[in-house]
């Protein structure tokens, strides 16, 4: 099955700076890569996702890039704001025909005002 | 519109007790997932339903865990004879289903925090 590794575990940046979180995956057949954020006491909420037929996707200050050759995908947040602070998770399909997701261990993103 | 709801939000059980956790998915969502999230970790897949059919239960950690979705809407995750290692947040997610193009976004509920004492 799929294995997802996420780095760094904690990322602290100054407000207005950019933040980048990276994940690697093991199954070359994986075709869907979502990023979720989770605030304390809440369930994960989708930030952005990308499918394997594109290399980059943008939504205002947020972008995700996918490198299928190297099997890694990254979340890019520009002009960070304090409300971006959260735990961010990358994910990929479990693989082997399974429909669930496997998640990285999470990055605690801290935006310093 | 209404999102995924879960109840109870918090549950404290004594070791050995049985618990039942409820999930109300978004109306019309075919797919329903249960995940277990330990403190400081990412969610881990437990089981998956498409309508009322449980198509994948490979993530259930033991035969003490049982899930059902009898009418293809509300789902219940039951844990029998709870153990301390069962303490975690149990998340439910739903989606419209998987088209030919691949997986769809999963919408998560707020979770049920289970503490076994």
Structure, explained:
The complex is a heterodimer of chains A (113) and B (117). By secondary structure, chain A is an all-beta fold. Helices cover 0% and strands 60% of the residues of chain A. Chain A is built from no helices and 11 strands. In chain A, strands 2, 4, 5, 9, 10 and 11 form a 6-stranded mixed β-sheet that branches. Chain A has a 5-stranded antiparallel β-sheet with strand order 1-3-8-7-6, with no helix packed on it. The radius of gyration of chain A is 14 Å and the shape is globular. The termini of chain A are far apart. By secondary structure, chain B is mainly β. Helix content of chain B is 0%, strand content 47%. Chain B is built from no helices and 11 strands. Chain B has strands at residues 5-7, 10-13, 19-24, 31-37, 44-50, 53-56, 65-68, 75-79, 88-95, 107-108, 112-116. In chain B, strands 2, 4, 5, 6, 9, 10 and 11 form a 7-stranded mixed β-sheet that branches. Chain B has a 4-stranded antiparallel β-sheet with strand order 1-3-8-7, with no helix packed on it. In chain B, a hairpin with a 2-residue loop joins β5 (44-50) and β6. Chain B is globular. Classes of the chains: A mainly beta (113), B mainly beta (117). At the A-B interface, β4, β5, β9 and β10 of A face β4, β5 and β10 of B.
């Amino acid at each position: 099955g799929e294995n997802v590794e996420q780095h760094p575990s904690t990322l602290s940046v100054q407000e207005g700076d950019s933040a980048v979180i990276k994940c690697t995956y093991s199954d070359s057949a994986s075709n869907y890569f979502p990023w979720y954020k989770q605030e304390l006491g809440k369930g994960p909420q989708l930030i952005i996702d990308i499918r394997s037929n594109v290399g980059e996707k943008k939504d205002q200050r947020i972008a995700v890039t996918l490198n299928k050759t190297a099997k890694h995908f990254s979340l890019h947040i520009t002009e960070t704001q304090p409300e971006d602070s959260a735990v961010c998770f990358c994910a990929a399909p479990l693989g082997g025909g399974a429909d669930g997701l496997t998640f990285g261990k999470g990055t605690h993103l801290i935006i310093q005002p | 519109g209404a999102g995924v709801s879960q109840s109870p939000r918090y549950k404290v059980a004594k070791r050995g007790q049985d618990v039942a956790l409820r999930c109300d998915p978004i109306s019309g969502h075919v797919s329903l997932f249960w995940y277990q999230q330990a403190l400081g970790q990412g969610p881990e897949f437990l089981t998956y339903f498409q309508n009322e059919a449980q198509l994948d239960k490979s993530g259930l950690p033991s035969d003490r865990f049982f899930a059902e979705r009898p009418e293809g809407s509300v789902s219940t995750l039951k844990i029998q004879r709870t153990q301390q290692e069962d303490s975690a947040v149990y998340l439910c997610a739903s989606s419209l289903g998987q088209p030919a193009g691949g997986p769809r976004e999963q919408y998560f509920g707020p979770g049920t925090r289970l503490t076994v004492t």
